[in-house]
């Protein structure tokens, strides 16, 4: 007998429709990625590229929520206090998960206990750039200029405690340069100030500076990596100039509030790792100067722990404090 001809068929179809609607609603519940920096910087660009690739696989829209300020700790505190329901994640990076422990006497959250690792997304080596009007077209010229008038050079950064701050201080000291640090609320505003001639130099992640270098608006002097970057083949490494040990990269990955269900962590980790193997996403990351950072939650957790072991003693030895 045809189901539609039976008296109770409308009730059956109504129940099925309600079930389908409920399932669709559940699938579309948004997932929130809280980014600790304003739009336009490396963290924002990498997060948006990854989010675009994994949203369909997760069956849910991903909301990018930029909450800059306090060296990433405003965003970190929001996520640390969020419900551990698998719907809110923190785009963790060098400062809010590592370096701030050395710069601040007290943090609003414990970066080692407040979160569980989920997945790495991407990283980018830092680039030393200068404003064209500075008159330093090479690393040697910058060193000559800086040593002639110690302390006169101004160094912009994406914020106190950011890797662009700490690595910049360390690299400058290796080169014998005394600089005045000028912190901004993210790479985009710092690069804007550099373009405007308000600061002299900056150590920046490639996604927020490479296109400006290619356009001739700022000058690239050195890259803080073991090898030259393929898309900037004429830019030497600091190692080549004789300053070993200054390798540094900005990195970004997701962590979740402590006690987030393991199933939610694994689901997101798997979606990200699948996405990071796609040629289309890899090409997009390369085009902005980033490299994929794949691996299990445990692997990302170890990566962050290794960064702590490297940078915390260095930050303390340099005496760098939040401005």
From TrEMBL:
Membrane-crossing segments per the record: none
Keywords (A to Z) from UniProt: Signal
SUPFAM superfamilies xrefs: Periplasmic binding protein-like II
Segment forming the signal sequence: 1-26
Coiled-coil residue windows: none
Family matches, as InterPro entries: BUG, Bug_dom1
Superkingdom, taxonomy of origin: Bacteria
Family: Belongs to the UPF0065 (bug) family.
Name of the protein in its database record: Uncharacterized protein UPF0065
Natural source organism: Verminephrobacter eiseniae (strain EF01-2)
